[in-house]
Design brief:
heterodimer; A: about 220 residues; mainly alpha; MetI-like fold; 8 helices; B: about 230 residues; about 75% helix
Chain lengths: ~220, ~230
């Protein structure tokens, strides 16, 4: 094992660049998956199989196929269809879409866990459907699902390196570029490996604190 | 698409299936060893198993694959065949997730079962093998089924290392045809079909295992002669 600390210090500026990109992917991807997941979950409750079947099939398909191939699909096919977006945008959309099929199930469970009495009370008070959702059901459902959503943010963090395959320079992309220039593989890869462990540990601590707050 | 290109895709699918089976076997072994070790009475065993799960769950599968491909060879002076390197990285990573499933299912078995085993003076190994695992394993199947689909999706990562799996063959066909929508749709469909079959098989397995809980193990023929008509009652 030949470990060279000077290679580590050479890599660090690239590492911080990569970390920023990783965090940006994570924040934007989470935002997309939270919103889109809620949209899927609500569409699945539309009382018409013309809506629920297509949504169900598409989300099932996206959930059970590799994110990597989906990224390739978006990256190479969208330009053929005349849609041009930067690699980062494509990646964020891809990862957000992929995880929205998971958050959708989380929301569904949260909505189903709202006691039936809440629905009945809303009906008894003659609340319009829109207000039943926005003022009664969703505030209670979303509160319940925050910890589960947080878990998906952590798994999304661990999937961000896949964006390297479509030329996004996040942490792993920076590490690979650095390795190709300097022929040092051990140091950059170990640095980002440790960085992932630290990041996901910090995220799980933050999540646990949030969970405790919400429990009260 | 020509038949030659289809052959390439099928070869890729075969590599994916091989990698899936091998890494699923390694992951299952790692999951059971680490999951059972986390319920051990010695703290050092629990600590080591916990360290393994936290480290491998904490890091990204793709980073782990890069590490196995690029850092292990110079560090230890040997190079793994790509299939085994991929198996090692994927099996250990997903095994760490599986260890949590195993531990959770073992902890969820009614404590009275464990106490009953102690009262009957079973050894710890007998309690694990004859009492805890038969009840815990059926409960593990649904989460394992989800994990298996995640593992299938994870196998696509080795294509980044140039291993000729399904995702890699998709890239080759795209380069050959200069056209991507069709081939990637086929590739995604093949992955979807494999995932569907896996889920189905796991559901069947779950049903079979659940039906066995609470039944006496099948008696071996001629092990114990049946006592003929105890007390004259038949």
């Amino acid at each position: 094992m030949n470990w060279d600390w000077s290679a580590v210090s050479d890599f660090m500026p690239h590492f911080w660049d990569g970390l920023l990109v990783t965090l940006r992917i994570l924040v934007l991807g989470s935002a997309i998956s939270f919103v889109l997941g809620l949209v899927w979950a609500l569409l699945m409750r539309v009382p018409s199989r013309w809506v629920t079947w297509p949504v169900g099939i598409v989300t099932e398909f996206v959930r059970n196929t590799p994110l990597l191939v989906q990224l390739f699909f978006l990256f190479y096919v969208l330009p053929e269809w005349g849609v041009t977006a930067s690699a980062l945008t494509t990646g964020v959309i891809g990862i957000g879409l992929h995880y929205s099929t998971y958050t959708m199930q989380v929301y569904r469970a949260g909505i189903e866990a709202v006691p039936a009495g809440q629905w009945e009370a809303a009906t008894a008070l003659n609340l319009p459907l829109r207000r039943t959702w926005t003022a009664v059901i969703l505030p209670q459902a979303v509160r319940r699902v925050v910890p589960a959503l947080g878990n998906y943010v952590i798994s999304m963090l661990k999937d961000t390196p896949m964006l390297m395959a479509i030329t996004v320079l996040e942490m792993l992309g920076e590490a690979r570029l650095f390795s190709q220039e300097t022929f040092r593989f051990t140091e950059p890869l170990t640095v980002i490996g440790v960085a992932f462990i630290v990041l996901s540990y910090l995220a799980s601590l933050a999540l646990r604190a949030l969970e405790r707050r919400l429990a009260h | 698409m020509t038949s030659g290109l289809w052959e390439l895709v099928l070869k890729g699918a075969w590599v994916t299936v091989q990698l899936l089976v091998l890494s699923a076997l390694l992951a299952t072994a790692a999951a059971f060893v680490a999951g059972v070790a986390r319920t051990h009475k010695l703290w050092i065993v629990r600590f080591l198993a916990g360290l393994y799960t936290e480290v491998f769950r904490g890091t990204s599968a793709l980073v782990m694959i890069f590490w196995v491909f690029f850092v292990l060879p110079p560090a230890f002076g040997w190079q793994l065949v790509p299939l085994w390197a991929g198996t090692l990285a994927l099996g250990l990573t997903y095994g760490a997730y599986g260890a949590e499933i195993v531990r959770g299912a073992l902890v969820a078995v009614d404590p009275a079962q464990q106490e009953g085993g102690i009262a009957l003076s079973f050894t710890p190994w007998q309690r694990m093998r004859l009492i805890l695992l038969p009840q815990a394993v059926p409960e593990m199947i649904p989460p394992f089924s989800n994990l298996l689909v995640e593992l299938l999706k994870g196998t696509a990562l080795v294509s980044i290392m140039g291993m000729g799996d399904l995702a890699f063959s998709g890239n080759l066909v795209r380069l050959a045809l200069q056209e991507s929508a069709e081939i990637y749709t086929y590739i995604l469909l093949i992955y979807f079909v494999i995932a569907f079959l896996l889920t189905r098989a796991m559901r069947g397995l779950e049903k079979k295992l659940k039906a066995q809980v609470g039944k006496a193990p099948r008696k071996r023929e001629s092990a114990l002669p049946e006592p003929a008509g105890i007390g004259g009652v038949r």
